[in-house]
Amino acid sequence: MDCLDFLSRRRSVPARLLGEPGPTQEQVQAMLAAAVRVPDHGKLAPWRFLCIRGDARQALGELLATRLLEREPAAAPAQLDKERQRFVHAPLVLAVVACLVPGHKVPEQEQLLSGGALCFALLQAAQALGFGAQWLTGWAAYDPAITARLGLASNERILGFIHIGTPQAEAPERPRPDPMQRLADWTP
Ligand SMILES: Cc1cc2nc3c(=O)[nH]c(=O)nc-3n(C[C@H](O)[C@H](O)[C@H](O)COP(=O)(O)O)c2cc1C
């Protein structure tokens, strides 16, 4: 498969369809090494990663369930279970954290964009190694109590939880927009 073919066929594999085996430590390193080559205005490298694997996945799910009960005391047991299950499927979840440099001449938007590109590069690197992956956020990515428990500082943001593992079933395709319908010539 040539490169463009690979990119044109890329699709996410829903986290619930991901299972063992996950990437080895060498493969994690290789994926990150590819992903940090994203465009990065000002060479700020305004991002870092958290590896969530093994028992930490269940622990994070418990944290989400506990926090949801705080936020919504009437939350149904099924909702709480959903939170507990959020991170248990894929063997590896990489949280991509934006480390924003406030007041820098490179606007925060560009720092965030670089991190977003990095999330996507991670998806591609995972797929290039034969894994499936999905970029998820969910309410927890924006909840201050959860981000504090993840160790984020006030200038840091969760950009995504990248779930990575071996597809246990074929991922469904979704309709894709026709780019030509969104293309126009700009005329002065
Ligand atoms: C920043 C970001 C956050 C996302 N968060 C979620 C999410 O919380 N839940 C979800 O179902 N999909 C989420 N998605 C969408 C999936 O990552 C993915 O795009 C979708 O499953 C379709 O897969 P595709 O990559 O094949 O288009 C998010 C996408 C982005 C870019």
From TrEMBL:
Ranges for domain Nitroreductase: 8-165
Region (Disordered): 169-188
GO molecular function terms listed in the Swiss-Prot or TrEMBL record: oxidoreductase activity
Enzyme kind, highest EC tier: oxidoreductase
EC number(s) per entry: 1.-.-.-
Sites where the protein binds FMN: R10, R11, S12, R37, H41, W135, L136, T137
InterPro entries per record: NAD(P)H_nitroreductase (IPR052530), Nitroreductase (IPR029479), Nitroreductase-like (IPR000415), YdjA-like (IPR026021)
PANTHER family registered for this protein in UniProt: NAD(P)H NITROREDUCTASE YDJA-RELATED
Family classification: Belongs to the nitroreductase family.
Descriptive protein name: Putative NAD(P)H nitroreductase
Provenance organism: Arenimonas fontis
Source lineage: Bacteria, Pseudomonadati, Pseudomonadota, Gammaproteobacteria, Lysobacterales
